[in-house]
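Database export, one record per block. Field names are fixed; values are copied verbatim from the stored entry.
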Amino acid sequence: MAHYSQKVMDIAQVKNIVASLKAEGKKVVFTNGCFDILHPGHTRYLAAARDLGDFLVVAVNSDRSTRVIKGDKRPVMPQDARTEVLAALSFVDLVTIFDEETPYRVIEVLQPDILVKGGDWKEDEIVGADIVKKAGGEVRRIPYISGYSTTEIIEKIKVR
C-alpha cells in the first residue's frame, strides 16, 4: 500500500481521480473544514461521511483561510500537519488544501455526488449545496456530536 502522505494532492490531481471514479460509477463524497486539532467528533464524522459513498475527499482550509474564519490565533496546527493527520485515517481517501474562505470553487471543480457537513449546519447555509443538487447529487448532514470541539479543547488547555 502507498504511504498515506500520497493521499494529499492538489486540486487538479484530485479532479482527475474524481472524474475517473465517477466514470466507473463510484459515488464520491466530499466534505471540508479546518480540522485544526483532530478529535473524536471529527473522526466519527469523517467515518460516517465515508460510509455514504465509495470514496471520501476532504478539503482542508489553508492556514490563511483558517485565520480568516477562526481568528488570528488559529490554526494551532499548520496545514501540512492537519492534512497529514487526515490522510493517515483509513476512511479518508484523498485530502486537498484550499485557500479561499469557502470551498465553493473546489466543489464546483470536483462535482462530488454527495456533499456532507455536520448537523450544526442548516442545509440552506451549506456552501456548494446548489452545485451538487443541480448536478443531481445530494447534500447530507451528519448529526453533530456534542462534547467535542476544537475551541473547547483549546479553552481547556488554557485553563490548565
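Remark 1: The chain has seven helices and five strands.
Remark 2: Residues 11-23 form the longest helix (13 residues).
End of record.
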